[in-house]
Amino acid sequence: MHEDTETTTIQGSLRALRSQWPVIAGVVLVCVLLAVAISVVEHKTYTATATISVTDPNTEIGLVGGLGGSTQTPQQLASVHASQVLRQSVIVAAIADLHTPRSAASIRQAMSVQVDPTSALVDVTATDRSPAFAASLANAIAHEDVAQSVAAARAGYANEARRLAATTKASAANADPGVQAVYVEQLSRLQALSAVASPELVQGLADVPSSPSSPKPVRNAAIAAFLGLLLGIGAATVRSSLDRRLSTAAEIETRLGLPLVGHVRPSGMGQAVGLGTNGGTAYEPADVETFRVLRQNLLFLGDGITPIRSVVVTSALPEEGKTTVAASLAIASAAAGKLTLLVECDLRRPALAPRLGIPATPGLADYLLGTAEPHEVLRVVANPDQPTDGRAPGFAAGGDQAKPLVCIPCGTVPAHPAELLGSERFRSFLSAASEDYDLIVIDSPPLLPVVDARELIPLASAVLLCVRLSQTTDDQMTAAREALGRLPQRATGLVVSDVAPTDSSAGYSYYYAESR
């Protein structure tokens, strides 16, 4: 269970990031453009490197016949000397060699010294806007460092030779011949070292660089893209956490705790799917299939014993696809051979008449007000299996012969719709209609803005709650669920509208609600 929860959380996070891809892409693009712009306006700088090799003084002694041996590794020797390369005397001498007016501080700032870990060589690097000056500066610092280090080492050996010569001369009269011979040999070595010792050597001269070391537009753009991706993911995560709109069918089903019995594709929104006389945009065959699925799922929504004879189709707020669902479900039911009545009970914003191609008046409101008789408000909609405009046929009737759909439109918009829907006359009408029709589909007003739907739900066998992706918020869904909870319990199913075909969480034609 814990692993399933973690998997669901990860999948939800990935879906949230996928839905926020424009934010992520925008942040990445801004960062890349900013990096490129900085690279364009930034001054070009060039880098040149000279290399110095450092040897152990004991090795020098060994070369002239002593018992020299290395007491430090080459890496240690190079590390010790690297910290001494940019001493003041070297920088001043290099400035004199180059005849440059630049200060010692600016020269020091342009230099860097580090040890090459693969070769134990000391790299002396100069950076400047001029490639020629960068190479000359690196070479001058390297030459001066080597010259001063060699001179200091030879001077040290010469001083030691003079000290030993004075000691030998002072003790010549009384010294043992063997000891005197050792002193003479040591003096000879020191004198040789004072002339030839070279503890440092310029191993490689810096070449004039052919391309700038900075800026590097490609590198900067790549780094900016990576940083932009991280910032974009962060921004998308924050935006997603602040966005209270529900974005997947699975998320809605989990939040509401209701079975998902159907969905509506974007191409089916605002239509009477399966009806050839529908004046809207041509629907697709897949739209027809979604309402076949809804029709079938409605059979399993009840307790399995008492058939569902009437269903209220509602939503939390307007523009969530409830009228599309009501009309298309009724058409699907009639096409399956069920005698179906579609009743427009949204007396505030009627929309069925133009979609079905039927007269708008008289209708339900006129009947409830006593200004029309039942036979005057009944409209027979053309057989949905017989297309009239050359488009694909509607729902297949299966083994049953399709029946015409009967519809009662709103009629004249009344002044007090809630009172009409709560009247005894409406209850009697609905009760009588339930005996004559296999299924009554009621297009209801939304739950939250008005009270009308709360008058209708207790009179029906089942409720279909429509929720529109990326529009309905979590708070609105919670309020709708609480409103349903305060009404008599009815078999309730969830229909998610405006679901893109890429949303696998909707289940599409393969999802059937479990019995409740």
Name the helicity range.
Answer: 40-55%
What is the strand content? 5-15%
- How many individual β-strands? 12
- Give the end-to-end Cα distance, rounded to a whole number of Å: 23 Å
Rg measurement, Å? 45 Å
Order of strands, widest sheet: 5-12-11-6-10-7-9-8
Could you tell me the mean pLDDT?
81
Task: Categorize the overall geometry.
Answer: rod-shaped
Please explain how this structure is put together:
With 516 residues, the chain is an alpha/beta fold. It has 19 helices and 12 strands. The strands form 2 sheets. Strands 5-12-11-6-10-7-9-8 form an 8-stranded mixed sheet, with helices on both faces. The chain has a 4-stranded antiparallel sheet with strand order 2-3-1-4. Strand 11, helix 19 (474-485) and strand 12 form a beta-alpha-beta unit. Residues 63-69, 384-399 and 508-516 have low confidence and may be disordered.
Task: Map the helices and strands.
Blueprint: H1 2-19, H2 21-41, E1 46-54, H3 57-63, H4 74-82, H5 88-98, H6 104-110, E2 111-115, E3 122-128, H7 131-170, H8 177-196, E4 200-204, H9 217-242, H10 249-256, E5 260-264, H11 285-299, E6 310-315, H12 322-335, E7 340-344, H13 352-356, H14 364-368, H15 374-377, E8 379-381, E9 405-408, H16 417-421, H17 424-436, E10 439-443, H18 452-456, E11 462-468, H19 474-485, E12 491-497
Keywords, please?
alpha/beta; four-stranded antiparallel sheet; 19 helices; disordered C terminus
Q: Summary?
A:
It contains 19 helices and twelve strands. The chain has 516 residues and is α/β, with parallel strands linked by helices.
